[in-house]
Structures are given as structure tokens and as C-alpha cells.
Amino acid sequence: MGFNTIAELKTRLNMKNKNNFSRISIVIFVLTCLQFNLYAQTPSTNNNQQLYADPAQPTEKRVLDLISRLTLEEKAILLNHRGPVVERFKIKSDGWNQSLHGVWWNRPTTMFPVSIAMAATWNTKLIHEVATAISDEARGIYNGWHQDTAFKGEKKGLIYRAPVINVSRNPYWGRINECYGEDPYLTGRIGVAYVKGLQGDDPKYLKLVSTLKHYAVNNVERNREALTATVSERMLHEFWLPHFKDCIVEGGAQSIMASYNAINGVPNNINKMLLTTILKDQWGFKGFVVSDLGGVNTMVKGHGKGKMTYEDAVAQSLNAGCDFSDREFMEYIPAAVKKGLLSEERLNDALYRVMYNRFHLGEFDPPSMVPYSKISPDVIGSAKHRQLALKTAQESIVLLTNKNQILPLDKTKIKTIAVIGPHADLFTAGDYSGRVADPVTPLQGIKNRMSPGTEILYVKGAEIIARKDSTDVLVLNTKQELQKAADAAKKADVAILFIGTTLAVEKEGRDRTSLSLPGKQEELIKTVLAANPRTIVVEMNAGPLTIPEIKEKAPAIIEAWWAGEEGGNAIADVIFGTINPGGKLPLTVYASEAQVPSVDEYDVTKGFTYMYINGKPLFPFGHGLSYTDFKYSNFKIASKKINTRGQATVNITIQNTGKRKGDEVVQLYVHDVVSSVKRPTKELRGFQKISLNPGEKQNLTFTVPADKLAFYDEKSHGFIVEPGMFDIMIGSSSEDIRASGQLEVVKK
User: pTM of this prediction?
Assistant: First the structure.
């Protein structure tokens, strides 16, 4: 017979032995002493006496039991994400890792296209598959070093810092390669799919812990450790937070990172409104908040500028709702508690949140009980995952222009191809990338896919390199190289020109200084176009490229992003028509830099994104062409009048009227016709990606709940739906609207 607690044993003994009081009293006294010793001294090696080590017990009881056994100093160690081993309990630091588009490791793992490219697929099911593959590889690494003492490679834990779900309000932002674009709704849909794939679907165990980055209003790199964003209450809740809420409430993300910046003068690491009131109280977040690396340090040396001690910074961070951090937590928590700056109750709450997740990862249970412990290291960089990387790259490619249907190229009729440009034989992994085995460059992809006997003329044409003295770049482009490019283009039946940016231009810590192509790449494009009008321009970048003159002159432009290890093959598949492109832009490509407000302006209504852009874009949000045509018909709003708590059903039929199988992303936008506040000209509220054979039709249904027509009201401090008329629009992009009607909202 077993007992869960000493108290339960006391109850059982007293119930069964009422007539043997003195003997029972002695037993209870002894057990009570043992209980005290168990909690205050070195724990017994008998796991039956350690509730926290019993997998049959509820997780909540196990975590509380462990916390009750820890000293103040041990608690502080466990709140340092890279702390030393807590020797009494043999608890190692998780050590966390990154997985934006593949596991960051010191051995090769599968490298998928960067996050902005994944968003361009508009395929939530596919992104869930990608995140599942990434988490399989993460578990494969973890299982490898736990099950094999000879396992080689860095030993990583199970807390992963991904995804980045900041919206790219600022088109100059250096970290656009890490995010899912400019729209909160699309970001939320992609983010939820990624989080669920990363964390798994087991009812008891987490596969990984997903950490959302960077909470919140973070998309400027310059001076980010001391920067403050001036944001209205309405903009905060309406534009900057909805996708975080989606990933917390619907996606179930178990961790979130406080960003470096401040909001309205309050650094996010000590922003109680953000970390506790909104996140934990209003959204019901049960996971843990982690500071960005050096987050506490920025309180002292950045935002605080020497006015705050480390003890103050640690205490204020924890009191605001930050649960997990760097060595500063380990070093200064004990003193903060002893000085009364931090209550032990709040400290225990933070520790509970962190350890609750670690228990759900299965760290304290036998591997045989954890389903994910069965994942073999053989999945790392597997052929199956490489094929998924290819599919993701194929679906991410956006056909921007295609004049006179020059694409796809018939490779059977091409004898000579000129492959030109600084990106032609360059592999750009993207930020937070691990190692990759045999990445396919565009040049190699064309070689892999072209017809036998086709001659390839390769010329670099230019080179993108970082300057040592600034964040700018220098693109070498000599007259000799230009002449080589022109000569190759003249000799070829067609020229394919690969241009773009690299991490020397845009990355963490480095915002772009211009939206145009860096250096002299436009000169290279014009030179090649003059030599051969049959020139295909392929952009390989993350942030939008403002190139209006090239749009006018080039017969076709493809947005290929930084496309992962199979990117070169995917690009060739699109160029030669093996794959019909179906990607759509997850961001606006501005027609000129004059359209973009100051990066210090956080009110998006002043001209940011497709929702409020001043004038026409170069390429609109949601844009992407196909090698086939799609007809939209039978548009119908099932109920043209709903109350403020109702929902409308919208139906439409899509038909592939061309000669090729193709993918289409059908997008639903709404617009408040008359509003008391400035509202978006269009706002994405639904999308479906479908694949149709020639002639095939599909009937689609969208649901538009009234709360998706709401705006944030600063008087009532909540979202409201104003009665009135709303435009409901369905199209192939935010500018290419194919059908529309009106919906009336009335008071309930």
C-alpha cells in the first residue's frame, strides 16, 4: 500500500488505529521528523519518498514539492537559463537553443527557408509540418546525447527561442528575415501553426518549449537597448499585440521573451502592464517570461544609465513579471529577497512557471514514459526533411512580374543560359542559422535541372561585402566585370540574373539604410538587360526592395528570398515550369522611400503597411502571379445583417481556367465604411490556400465573426464593434480584389 503524502499516511493511521493512540503518536512523530529532514536536508535517494520524482503524481504537486526542498540560492540558480548544475538534485541548466528555420547546432541540420519566406507560402499546414520536422530534429539531438555517451555534437536542451512574431512595420528593419511579415492576422496564423508544430500534440508532454520573440513593439535595431517606442493604447492592442495573443491563447506557447526596448518610457523587462496585467492576467498565460540576453544588464547600463543597481534591476524585473533570465538573476536574487526588494512568493511563482514546463518536457520522468524520447537522431538532416525543405522553398517563391508570359522557360529549346550576379553562386543562410550539408546555390540548381547539353555561362558581375567601418556595404562592380556580364548575356538564349542582399546588409543589429538594391547592382541589371532583353531577374533578400525602374524594364521578376538548403533547386523548378509558383507577398514593397514614415513613428495609421499606405505600392501585400488563371464567381454573403456578437458566412467559387495545375491564395479583407476613428483601407481577416487542376472548381466558405470587425476603444479600454456597413472583399491580393459586397452590423 502506498501513500502520496505524509499527511495522508497520518490520516490513514488515525482512522485505522483509534485505540492505539500512543503507538500511533510515536509513529507520526517519527514520520514528521523524517518529513522535516526530507524537505530541509539532502533528499533521500529513495524516490518513493520524493513526491517530485514520482511520475504518477500531478505535475503541480511535483513542482511545488521540488520548490519546497530548494534553498534560496538553488532557486536563483534555476532561474539562470545557463546556470550551473544544482548538485543536490542533479538538475542541469536547459541551455536553450534557436530554431527559426532549422535547429541551430554545431553539426548539420535541415535548413528550411528563412521565416519571411515561410510566411510567403501562406500555408499554415505546411508550416506546421516544417515546425514538426524541426522539433523532431531537436528531440533527436536531445535523445542522442542522453542515450549514447559517445554522441558527438553540442548538447542542447528543449527550450527553443522561436518563433519571431514581431510584425515588420518598419521596412528597413534588419530582422525581417526572421519574422512573418507586416500583418498581425497573417503572422498570428503562421505563428500558431509553428508553435503547435514545435511543442507537439501529446496531451501530457511537451515536445519542446516554444519562446515567442520579442514582446513587444520591437522592430528597430539601432540603440535597441535604450530605445523607447511611443505607442498609443489603441495601436498597442490593435496592431502590436493581436498575434502574440493568438500564439499564447490559441497556440499555447509556453514561453515569451521580453524585448530590449521600452514602451512609452517603461523598459519591457520591467513593464508590469505588458508582462503581468495583459499577458498573465488578461490572457491567462501560465508559462514563463524570459528576458532577452542581457535584459537585466540593459536596465543598469542601457535604459537605467547607471541609476539602477543590479539588485534593483533583478527585483523590478521579477516583480513586473519576468521569470527567467541571465546570471544576474542567479547572483542577485538572494540579496534582493533578503533586503525585502523581492518576495519569496513571487520568486516561487517564477520558479514554478519555469519548472512546470521542464517537468512537462519529461526531464524528470523515465524516457520510456515520454513518447518523444523514441525519436531517433537519424531524423537529423534526413532525406524526408530535405524534401520538405524543397517543397517549402518551392511554395515560398513569388512571381512578381511575367510580361508576355516569358516564364516558364522551355528548357528543351534553350542551348545557352547566362547565369549572372552576386547571388548566382552564393548561399545565404539567414540569421540564427545552424550548419547545413550541401546547400544548393542557384547556379547549381540550374545545372541540376537544365536539359543535358545546355551550355551555362557564369559571371559573378558584382560582389557584396561588408565594410569594416560601418553598417553599409560595398558592392564591387568593375567595368571589366560588367563587360563580362554583357558578353555572356549576348551569347545566351536567355539570361538569369541573381541579385539581392546578404547578412552584410540586413540582420540582427543592422537595419538597412536604403530600400533600394545595395551598391551597383542596378547598374549590373541594366547592363545585362541592354545586352539581352530576355533576362529574368531573381531577387534574393528578406526586406522589400524598391526597384521601380527594374520593374519597368525587366520582362520577369521573381522573389526567391533566402530559400534554405534546397533553394537553388526550387528556383530552377519555378523558372523551368516544373513547379507553378503560388507564393504571395507577406509584406508591402513600397514604390519609393518617400512613402515610408519615420522609423520613430509607431502609429501605423500614418502610412505604414498595406492597411494605411500613402499611394500605390510597387508590389502590394498578398501579391503573387501564377502560370495559370483563376476565376472568382458566385460570391455571396449568406447573411447581410448581423448583430455585434454574431458572425457572417461568405461563399465564393474559384476555378482554374488555365492549362496548368496551380495554387491560389484566396484572401478576404474587410473595411469599415464609416468609422469614428481612422480604420484600415483593407484589413486581412481570412485566407485559404487551394490547389486546382485545369478546369477544376472549388467552393470556399469564410466565416467573419463580428469581433474581427472591431477596433480598440481607448475610452472603454477594450475592443468594440461599431454598428454600420462593412465592405467584405475577396481577391488574389490586397489590390487585386475580385468580388465584394457589404455587411451591416446592428446593435444586439
Answer: 0.92
